[in-house]
Structures are given as C-alpha cells and as structure tokens.
Specification:
97 residues, 39% helix, 4-stranded antiparallel β-sheet, 4 strands, alpha+beta
Length: 97
C-alpha cells in the first residue's frame, strides 16, 4: 500500500517567493532522485496566495522514509519551515484508487 501525505502550509507575508524556490528545488530533486516517489506536487491556493498544499505519494513506507532521510530533504526542509507563519497541517493517508 502506498504512503500518501497532504500538507497545508501558510507562508509568512513576503516569503512566498523564497518558499516557492525552495519547494521547487525539493520537488525537482525528489523526482530526479527517488524512484519510489510517485507524486510530489506543490500547489498554491487561488484565493489565499500565502497558502500552499504539498501532496506526496510514495510507492510504500520505505520510499517515504527514504525521502525523509535524503540529504537534500535535510538541507531544504529547515529553511522551508522557517518561511511558515504557523505550524503546517500534515495529514498522513493511505492511497485507495
């Protein structure tokens, strides 16, 4: 069974571009380096421009743990979190269809 997460992130005013640049790099490296990552998307809310959703789906829990433990994840996530105005809402899910 694949492992899936949906994270809602609210970014501090004025930090949107930095957040997007960091997330873009994380997404690109994830897709290039992690064959167990099926989907890793970062999307911006249309009417709340400081609100983003990150959707990740991994082949299995092992692939998710590999993502969490990658060197670029460890390098990019702390500055991503520093951009946030509040704690992210992280939901862990099981993909059905």
């Amino acid at each position: 069974m694949s492992t899936t997460f949906v994270a809602t992130l609210v970014v501090k005013p004025g930090m949107e571009q930095q957040f997007e640049d960091l997330q873009r790099e994380l997404s690109e490296l994830t897709h290039q380096s992690e064959p167990g990552t099926l989907v890793y998307d970062v999307i911006r809310h249309r009417t709340k421009p400081s609100t983003y959703i990150v959707y990740g789906r991994f082949k299995d829990e092992q692939a998710f743990q590999a993502h969490q433990g990658s060197p670029f994840h460890g390098r990019l996530v702390p500055p991503i979190l520093a951009c946030l105005a509040q704690e992210m809402d992280l939901q862990m899910l099981d993909w059905v269809a």
